[in-house]
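Researcher: Let's run the pair from yesterday's discussion. Sequence first, then tokens, for each.
Model: Starting with the first of the pair.
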Amino acid sequence: MTIVGRKTELAELAEGWSRASAGEPELAVVWGRRRVGKTYLLTHFAEGKRSVYFTATRQDNDDRQLYRFAEALREQLGDEVADLAPPTFPSWEAALRFVAGLARTEPLLVVLDEAPRLTGGHADFADTVSAVWENHIRNQRLMLVLSGSAVAVMEQMLGPQGGLHRRAGVERRMDPFPLVDARAFQPDLSPTEFIEAYAACGGYPLHLTRWSAQRSSDENLDELAFSPGGLLLRDAPDILSEDLDWRGGYERVLTAMAGGARRRSKIAGRAQQRIDYTLDRLRRAGYVRVVRSLGNAGSPDPLYEIADDYLAYWFAVLRDDADLIDGGQGPAVRQRTAGRWQTHLARVFEHAARAHAQRLVASGALPSDTIVGRWWRDETVEIDVLGLSGDQPILVGECRWQAKRLAQRDLSDLQRRAAHLPPPGPAGLTFAFWSRGGADESLAGHPEVRAFTPDDIVDGD
């Protein structure tokens, strides 16, 4: 089994295992929405170790979960527990005390996947773990890993009022891969094709590995998104249902945002509901990000956008026509939604350009104190990429998901918008463009202009 990325996560878990093996019991919590690779990572981590891996299920009550856990102990640890493990356990406290006893002399890894499903209507599972850890765990060579896809529930467990607050030695949230890291899943695609794949699949390993380098982007979308039961068509509701109760209006809020509503008032108007609690819950669970205008001269009002590129694609392009696609009309729907797909692609490309600008800072191509973001004033002036050194602008950038090459008029337009910013420092401004087509010869004589393409974003520094 090979792992793409996740070096930080593996290193933290390995350190925790070293401590547990030395007689310092270790509690680890790993969480993140479905499909980000938690199970794959933890299964890989458990290889070669004395371990028990147990996945809780939605449909089982507490008694059934405990019975299945006892069964997993016998199956995975074999003869050493054949005469020790009971047919079932009366409670999770008893089950955890039992595995602690198995780790008195020899290291033991226990992974409880989808831990939020282990409540069973009784006391909060996190409180049970905390009580056992406080009262019965001393010098055992035990590493207990709790994992879950219900992001908000897991973070509540770890929060100030949660049973696991300051209990875990390892706390690691796993999110979908960022674009540059996700490149490892599709190294044979051209940079432009990869950005298209990422815009549809997001940073989810399963989605990306199902995208075929032998097919065109349209052919991949026909297979994965616009065919009945396609992976990209059906996965979003499953991911969201693990964490969100649709009765809270979350779907309406996300739909409004995917349709272009970015300010609170417009989101509330389109969703036709109060959104304060809903928006805050979505933000805390990582489904929504808050974006503020960089510096002091921009708008004081934040913008809100879907933080997950795959979910943004599903809400913007697939959601409203899912029934038509399931009814066999996917090819027609793909043509009808082509404009929404291109708008979504442009947003993903813009976000990737800002990430590329941040890498330019890290590589030394821009001053090390440069902060990168976006800037806008009301709804009249907007700058896609702004770099500030202190309070002074040093980089002003524009993103265009277009194959046409950029020309002098594009520079003039960007200079006009830059005039709304505070004055630059002595070094002046660098004007940057990110586009598929690059810049034409009319911009070659401008040393203050830099042009980047998908090659620079995906495979460059």
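Model: Moving on to the second of the pair.
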Amino acid sequence: MPLIPISTRFWSQISAVLCTLVLLLPAPSKAAVVRIKDITDMEGVRSNQLIGYGLVVGLNGTGDRLTNSIFTRETLISMLNRLGVNIRDQETQLQTHDVAAVMVTADLPAFEHGGNRIDVTVSAAGDSSSLTGGTLLVTPLMAADGEVYAVAQGSLATNAFSTRGAAASITRNVPTSGHIANGGVVEREVPFDLSHRTSLHMSLRNPDLTTATRIAAVINQTLGPIATVQDPRTLLIALTSRDPVATLSRIGDLLVQPDNPAKVIVDEASGTIIMGADVRISTVAVAQGNLTVQVTETPQVSQPGPFSNGQTAVVPRTNINVDTGKNHHLAVMQGGTTLRELVAGLNSLGVGPRDMISILQAIKADGALQADLEMR
């Protein structure tokens, strides 16, 4: 059996982290049951991303510097010209600091109709220091096809502030990005006829063949043989001679127990380890014999005797401790060990998160970890 290094200096570090992980795990006897609509999406039913470019006005001297942000200057001049204000001859004297060029983004949800309102996000595109207190002027929002689907306008809410003094400054949150609730008006709809569909594909957000089979079984048991599994992600729902809206509504409320593959996710940069409940390991022995050398310098001052001709001197003092790991232990994990047993065993050994990463990598390399190890 392979020997994998563990140091006793980590024996007490893992308690809080791993105990918290165990508490977050569901009890084995209580399997998670969820609604089908919470783990699936319907084909063609999705949101669309919108984007636009506009101007924010009314800033308190925190806007773009027109000498640096040429696009802000040209946009402002073009807008004023369209409004009947001609300043082309005096554009060199345009020095306002209350205007900022911004990028406006929004998500157009499915089944939105003309006149409905959506939320928009506004972000500075120039060198503006804050958008707090600004107002977005009418901005068309386009989709990937170049067509305008919404128009945005309104007062920004940044939930941030920034102030500066002669020697210090303070900033809370991000003052160069704001939000306008219901700030966009839908002008064009994305057509999707659900009521006349004779079939529909249902897609699992986490592809798994067992989960897809369970979903099909629950649907067919409740509504008849209308669901067919095509692959681990996709199910075909036959809607012939049925009301599609009512059928999909009933399907969405059905309960199913999803199955997740055994996986261990490791973020080596932060030392974070996430393990699924179905993780198993084969019989493996774990041990460590680190050599630790600790050198401590404690200089001391030597004073001469009273009325003597001696001089004060600094005398070095060095203390060296060597730990050869003679008190370290060998731990044996039996085959079929569950996540709870693995956590309890490593917890009793006092293994820290970062050392556990090395252990998991070594166990996976040995072939004893019966799970997918994903390093990030």
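Researcher: Give me one sentence on the second I can quote.
Model: Residues 8-29+263-302+313-375 form one domain.
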